[in-house]
Design goal:
membrane; binds zinc ion
Amino acid sequence: MNKRGHIVNAVLLGAGIGYLLEPSGSIATLRSVFVVGIPIVLGALFPDIDTEFGTHRKTFHNVWVLAIFVAFPYYTGNLQYVWLGIATHYALDLLGNVKGMAVLYPYPEMYDIPVGVPVTSKWADVVTLLVTAFELAVVAGLVHVGRAELLRNPTLTTVVDSLPV
Ligand SMILES: [Zn+2]
């Protein structure tokens, strides 16, 4: 997707997660939307840096980049929500678009989930909103089944602690 699509997706997802974590409708909700939403938007902008540095849909569109941002808060206590922005960028590129990504870069194979539309399609905005709605449904499901902690503190430690073993 293009930059506008990624920003719309990340803003809606960040606001949605922020609200779902703090649905009181008070100033705490607004704070939660900013605390969660801004790092997600910044993370969602990161992969397309490879349009200028590297090869687009390859250099910063792979599992290694995501792994670095998932691991970063574990070691630094910082940037907790940025990986969610990177993950939603990948989700939108894989589900909403038809071009694919070199998920295992530098292995050059471009992988794609066979749904989505070209960036230039008149349906691109609709598809972006559908992917966002799907992501928010997943998040609402996690909150509903008592896994809000995964979103409140989305670090490797929390994920490992929440495993049923
Ligand atoms: Zn991209």
